[in-house]
Design goal:
The complex is a heterotrimer. Chain A is built from 13 helices and no strands. By secondary structure, chain A is mainly alpha-helical. In chain C, helix 2 crosses helix 14 and helix 3 (about 90-95) crosses helix 14. Classes of the chains: A mainly alpha, B alpha/beta, C mainly alpha.
Chain lengths: ~280, ~450, ~325
């Protein structure tokens, strides 16, 4: 919009309110994680009387965070990569190709978002058991089971968003490339993917974040060897609810990797988004 | 040319996906014949603490039998759902822990080994066990499908320093004395006109703890949650009276902080006692929290009773709390699973484990050990052996806990923000009663 | 599933540069003109991985879930669930009879969840839009704010909810510390945010906090395609800020909006995690949403038929609403792109 004086004033007011709204809970988490237990027990103090790193040290002795972290990383990264790949292929097909049953496919994928997620829990486990009984493939308690679960959960939105994105890319670009003899797949890889980079990054970010924080399915589909970080946090939260400082420290530790990753990728996200804009 | 290319590209895409998947996946463990899987409930201060305390026992078992144990400690929030999926899929551990109030529900699934024949022999017969604890193994008149492992019971714990300050020398015995003492212990210590030290504290938002009180207080007043024909009687006179006594601690006696209506986990109420914000509480096993916080100023007494010296149902001070152990019927390693059940209930291991978790041995042979002669353990042991009744042994026990516990939780919420009349209590319990009747 | 002609146009200009670096592609063998798509299994090959996964992880369990609504699945037959007795519509009759306690609870919960969804999605959209509009103008610190606003979304859902639960604590929480101790609201009585009627509002606040950055991200992406010249032209014509917003910004985000509002609504309607972390397995009755109610009625009592029946009814309702919505709001032409 055009930057009149009123616009600037309004902008400063709105952005200040939004910043406070975002910042306050984050400040509460971080400041609490740095307080000694005796200062956490009473009324909340905005300015910590004393700062200590001990909550951060204590949590490492009670929860095997390093192992959980490794599990979370493997599961989340694989789920994200696979989900993006599968979604790109399907979205391209929907956006660019004619085929019978396209609308049915899109609607069916969409309809899965209408069923309460919680009700998938038992049937999914039953299906995993049947698969194991038929093929010997162990999906419960393995990385594979959680990876395909998470990647599928993020697929509908990923396909939906990417096909919208692809559809908005003019066909002439691909056609020019196909004249050059690259074929459809070549055009997809050489032309569409670079243009759709912001959309793909957005979808990847969405998949990563959804998988990283999930606890419900992880709680029945993992075992001692494959437990994820957010499950570790959940177990921690349910047994030490008076040690708020340690709980907050654990929250920070669980959030930090995904936040750092997000901030790194976000640069590209913003750059990509801006590249699409015309000055 | 172009069609094969298309096919090729599509195939590569699928193949790379499959490759990616299999590279990412594949960490399944196949149990070998000399390894069994054991799901343990969380009895320690954390999952790791529980595992560490269990390890010496399991090592002794491996040494003795050559059978390795693949241990997984599961938090209480996940255990029930994990058992559910295991039962439904037939894919579970060989041996597992269950909350003893789940025993009848789990018995009805038929997924667990009945305690007879070899299994009964391995645990040494039912006469070794405390009668009350044994009775939680399954529905009356049916072969139980679980054996007791750890015993627990409610006691009243209090802060001795606050008692001394208030000039109370002896812990209250009757409910009236308890309320009177609680009033003495409720005071305003910083002079702002509002009490900041309370006579009593409870986790008012904990559904299961609330339902235990509905059960115990109802029995003490001569009521019961179900009549002889198994029909729910949550809203009968004595039941309403019992729940009212509990709610009144906050609503009319004002000896319980309104903030307690928000507490959903027992450890927060223990924290109140340690910090001196409250003087008394009902709990099953706060010792591990006391020890972890280095808190020494505590005392213990039996739960207060409506009428002194009452026996039978009216003399109930606790439900028969505890953890049971079951053997999974689908176990491919049943002989070794049964061996583990026998080993964990043996006198020596009962002493070691219950000492480590500050719970009570469920076999009489272990109770005489020196570790269980403290006043605290003796009080708890007396409650468990002589003043405890099992929660109703019905398949819908879980629902009963949810309905009664939630009704009390909502009543506390109402008391915290306004007033609660007897009619409110009656109507809340009547609502719960109707839902229970509909579910049966 | 198509964007309007306008943003296709702008994307075209922006994307030219992406292919410019490789102008001299080796010539193809035949140099065919662009082909009309014809019968081929390429489209199916491309959707195949997605289709397999959807069938395995989504459609399969969903169908199984629907089937469960028609059988009696309780602890008595869980181990042998394939042979659980078929009971027809009995679960629907038991659970959804508006005369019964359970049925009443179900229908009032559906109404409450609907209100909840409208409030959460509405406020999230407004906040997201405000953030997106003001952050598409250039000023110092814009990039930092843009990243910062997305933090609540990047945070694991569990962490955000725990933080709010801690803040909402009646006795010691930060919320009452600000409202009561600092601003002396509520006549110095500390309200309970997680009990009774207030718990509904508290849950809404937590959900908006977690959801609005998502709306912000998507709307910001959509707004990137609005050229500044359009606003300049409008400003010269004397359009006020509000008029610019209504006549330029809103139509520009319409294609993105269609998808965004729908997925946000579906996610919010089926919200489970936030009440579960805030209240545990049983929510206050003023704040019970559909998913926790279904959870209670299936996992709490091990009576999966009842929970299944409720889900199926909701599925049908949501499906009809979604199809209606897609026809009404989403632009035509998804099929003939």
């Amino acid at each position: 919009m055009i930057e009149t004086r009123n616009f600037r004033i309004l902008r400063n007011v709105v952005l200040t309110i939004l910043s406070l709204w975002v910042a306050i809970p984050l400040y509460v988490v971080v400041s609490t994680s740095l307080k000694p237990l005796k200062d956490v027990a009473g009324l909340f103090q905005w300015i910590p009387r004393q700062i200590t790193a001990s909550p951060y040290l204590d949590i490492w002795t009670t929860v095997p965070l390093a192992k959980y972290f490794q599990n979370s990383l493997i599961i989340t990264v694989c789920a994200t990569l696979c989900s993006v790949t599968v979604a790109v292929l399907a979205a391209y097909s929907i956006a660019r190709l004619q085929f019978k049953g396209k609308r049915a496919f899109s609607l069916t994928v969409l309809s899965t978002q209408m069923f309460p997620g919680i009700l998938f829990l038992l049937p999914l486990y039953l299906i995993f058991t049947q698969i194991r009984n038929l093929t010997g493939l162990q999906l419960q308690g393995s990385y594979l089971g959680l990876i395909i679960t998470y990647m599928t959960f993020t697929l509908p939105f990923a396909i939906w968003m990417l096909s919208g994105y692809f559809a908005s890319i003019p066909k002439e670009l691909e056609e020019a490339s196909m004249i050059d003899g690259t074929g459809r797949m070549g055009a997809l890889i050489r032309v569409i993917l670079p243009v759709a980079k912001p959309g793909i990054i957005a979808v990847a970010v969405y998949s990563f974040i959804s998988a990283w924080g999930e606890v419900l399915f992880a709680s029945v589909l993992t075992n001692e060897a494959t437990k994820t970080l957010s499950l570790g946090l959940k177990a921690y939260a349910s047994e030490s609810d008076v040690f708020w400082n340690q709980l907050m420290a654990a929250s920070v530790v669980v959030s930090l990797p995904v936040l750092i990753g997000f901030i790194l990728v976000q640069k590209h996200l913003v750059a990509g988004l801006s590249a699409g804009a015309v000055k | 040319m172009k069609n094969p290319l298309k096919v090729l590209s599509a195939l590569t895409a699928i193949a790379s996906l499959a490759l990616g998947l299999s590279a990412c996946g594949g960490s399944s463990q196949q149990a070998t014949s000399d390894t069994i899987t054991y799901w343990a409930s969380d009895q320690g201060n954390s999952l790791d603490d529980t595992a560490a305390k269990l390890k010496p026992s399991l090592d002794r078992f491996t040494e003795k039998t050559g059978v390795k144990v693949n241990l997984e400690v599961i938090s209480w929030t996940d255990l029930y759902n994990r058992i559910l999926t295991a039962v439904t899929s037939g894919d579970g551990p060989d041996v597992l822990n269950i909350g003893n109030t789940w025993a009848v529900t789990l018995q009805e699934t038929g997924a667990f080994e009945p305690v007879e024949g070899k299994l009964l022999e391995a645990v040494g017969g039912k006469d070794r066990f405390l009668k009350t604890s044994w009775s939680t193994g399954g529905a009356e008149g049916k072969t139980p499908t679980s054996v007791p492992l750890y015993g627990l019971a409610y006691n009243m714990y209090y802060n001795t320093k606050l008692f001394k300050e208030a000039g109370i020398e002896k812990a209250p015995v009757t409910w009236d004395e308890f309320v009177a003492d609680a009033k003495k212990l409720t005071k305003d210590t910083n002079g702002d006109g509002k009490p900041d030290q309370w006579g009593f504290t409870a986790a008012g938002a904990s559904v299961s703890a609330n339902s235990h009180q509905a059960f115990i207080r109802g029995l003490q007043n001569g009521g019961s949650l179900f009549d002889k024909d198994g029909k729910p009687t949550f809203d009968s006179g004595p039941q309403v009276e019992g729940v009212k006594q509990f709610i009144d601690l906050m609503a009319t006696d004002k000896v319980m902080s309104p903030s307690d209506a928000e507490i959903s986990q027992g450890s927060q109420k223990v924290d109140n006692l340690i910090n001196g914000k409250a003087a008394m509480m009902f709990d099953q096993s706060p010792l591990k929290n006391f020890d972890a916080r280095g808190f020494k100023d505590w005392g213990v007494a039996p739960m207060p009773m409506v009428s002194i010296g009452a026996t039978g149902a009216a003399g109930t001070q606790s439900h028969v709390a505890g953890i049971n152990l079951s053997v999974f019927k689908n176990s491919k390693n049943k002989d070794n699973a049964i061996k583990l059940a026998g080993f964990l209930t043996s006198d020596a291991e009962q002493v070691a484990l219950n000492k480590a978790y500050s719970s009570l041995p469920v076999v009489t042979g272990a109770s005489s050990d020196a570790a269980f002669q403290t006043a605290e353990v003796k009080a708890k042991n007396d409650a468990l052996a002589n003043h405890a009744m099992p929660m109703p042994l019905i398949a819908k026990e879980g629902q009963m806990e949810t309905l009664t516990g939630t009704a009390i939780k909502n009543l506390f919420a109402k008391a915290a923000t306004g007033t609660v009349s007897e009619a409110d209590i009656k109507s809340a319990l009547k609502d719960a009663n109707n839902q229970m009747a509909a579910a049966q | 599933m198509s964007h309007s002609a306008l943003d296709s146009g702008t994307a075209a200009e922006g994307s030219k540069s992406a292919i410019d670096p490789e102008p001299g592609q080796p010539q193809g063998v035949t140099g065919q003109p662009p082909r009309k798509p014809r019968r081929s299994f390429l489209p199916y090959g491309l959707i195949l991985p997605a289709a397999i996964l959807e069938i395995l992880i989504h459609i399969g369990p969903m169908l199984l879930g629907i089937w469960i609504a028609f059988i009696s699945l309780t602890q008595l037959n869980l181990t042998n669930w394939l042979n659980a007795p078929f009971v027809g519509l009995q679960n629907f009759v038991n659970g959804l009879n508006p005369e019964s306690t359970i049925g009443q609870a179900f229908f009032s919960t559906v109404g409450r969840t609907l209100g909840y969804t409208i409030l959460v999605v509405g406020f999230s959209w407004i906040l997201g839009m405000a953030g997106a509009v003001f952050l598409s103008s250039n000023f110092k610190g814009r990039a930092i704010l843009r990243t910062f606003f997305l933090v609540p979304y990047a945070l694991p859902a569990y962490v955000g909810t725990i933080a709010w639960a801690f803040m909402f604590n009646q006795r010691d929480g930060a919320v009452n510390q600000i409202l009561v101790d600092t601003f002396h609201l509520f006549g110095d009585e500390r309200p309970f945010w997680l009990l009774g009627q207030n718990s509904f509002g508290a849950m809404i606040v937590v959900n908006i906090w977690q959801l609005w950055p998502f709306a912000f991200l998507m709307l910001m992406a959509a707004l990137q395609n609005v050229p500044n010249e359009v606003y300049e032209a409008a400003a010269i014509d004397g359009a006020t800020l509000w008029q610019q917003f209504r006549t330029i910004t809103l139509p520009m985000v319409r294609p993105a909006n269609g998808v965004l509002l729908m997925v946000m609504s579906l996610w919010t309607f089926n919200q489970f995690n936030i009440p579960f972390v805030l209240f545990g397995a049983s929510s206050p009755k003023e704040a019970t949403l559909v998913s926790p109610l279904i959870y209670q009625n299936s996992f709490g009592s091990w009576n999966f038929g009842l929970g299944g029946a409720m889900s199926v009814l909701l599925l049908i309702a949501l499906f009809i609403a979604s199809v209606f919505y897609i026809r009404m709001v989403l632009p035509k032409g998804a099929d003939n792109d």
